[in-house]
Amino acid sequence: MTTPLLILIAGPYRSGTGGDPDAIARNLERLEAAAAPIYALGHVPMIGEWVALPILRGIDTASGDGDVMYETARRLLQHCDAVLRLPGESSGADTDVAIARERGIPVYTDLSEIPAFKG
């Protein structure tokens, strides 16, 4: 490994929340909790919602643009080097894993599986 990896953290965001903003916030906190350990390993953590949420605030979702969250993650995955799949049911995270596997990039299921970058 000659450069740090850009690692997408994938897991439940809206799944299982019933739309409850507090539950969604807890899910985002869980995703974000993996960011610092990935950074400490020498890599760049990324969460699709970090990119998609500002987009959602700036466009008219009623225009038929599709699901911004899923589309943003799909586009983002074209630039990622790996995925960390956190536990929990999530069709979006499952789609992220499928895209990663199609691209042939690693899918980790635990932080301990991610190799450290010492550059």
Provide the spatial order of strands within the biggest beta sheet. Answer: 2-1-3-4
pLDDT < 50 stretches = none
Could you spell the SSE succession in H and E letters? EHHEHHEHE
Radius of gyration: 14 Å
Beta-strand percentage?
Answer: 5-15%
Helix content: 40-55%
Please tell me what the overall shape is. Answer: globular
Protein name: DUF4406 domain-containing protein
Overview of this structure, please?
- Helix 5 links the parallel strand 3 (82-85) and strand 4 (107-108).
- This protein is 44% helix and 12% strand.
- The protein has helices spanning 21-33, 35-40, 48-58, 68-76, 91-103; strands at 6-10, 44-46, 82-85, 107-108.
- The chain is of the alpha/beta class and 119 residues long.
- The longest helix is centred in the N-terminal third of the chain and has 13 residues, at 21-33.
- A 4-stranded parallel sheet has the order 2-1-3-4.
- It is built from 5 helices and 4 strands.
- It starts with 5 loop residues before the first strand and ends in an 11-residue tail after the last strand.
- This is DUF4406 domain-containing protein.
